[in-house]
Amino acid sequence: MKNSFKGKALIGVYAIWAIIExxxxxxxxxxxxxxxxxxxxxxxxxxxxxVVNRAILPKNIIGFLMSALAFSWIGDLLLTQGENPNxxxxxxxxxxxxxxxxxxxxxxxxxxxxxxLLIKKYPMIIVLLVGASGFIFKVLFxxxxxxxxxxxxxxxxxxxxxxxxxxxxxxxxxxxxxxxxIGALIFMFSDSLxxxxxxxxxxxxxxxxIMSTYILAQALIVVGVMNHEA
Length: 230
What we know:
Elements (H helix, E strand, L loop, with lengths): L8 H19 L4 H9 L1 H11 L6 H21 L5 H24 L8 H5 L2 H21 L3 H19 L7 H27 L5 H21 L4
Helix pairs in contact: 1-3, 1-10, 3-4, 3-10, 4-5, 5-8, 7-8, 7-9, 8-9, 9-10
């Protein structure tokens, strides 16, 4: 039976909110409170969508998903002050916790049998994901200085999150698996843009690309998890 979502208008609100936030990034509008309102308002909209549809999934899945969104929201607020090294580190920490919670969400949003069919059948998936994240870290390594350990830890966690998303294949409806997997991979790409822009060299239109991919990734993950049938 297909899930019937309530509050679909919230996804429309999220899209409009996202367009305004990306526009603010484009013009670099120097009104901090306005920027904080729109960047900080994204995750609460997704959280409201989850709350409205909380009856669809078991409480433990909803709990992990809401917690991941909450820590993402904290990370968003902290990274509005990302030029300050302390805010950046704490923002990184918030997203580190969010990725762990997403990995736990994906693990819970599987059928009871936890045999990882796809990864067991195609172990090269692990090699490709770990190899890609390892290559990114290797390129960034000479520029990280005192951030080597935090970035290494973060890279490991987001790679594990992506593997948890991929591992849901045949353990959840295909639509749920596809949306969550694409969302997780886009999230990894978005975080890679942040790392290259901050530690390697500035990327043209970095803030727009980072926010666009981040906003899309979060929406895909949330809608994907909500499409899981327990």
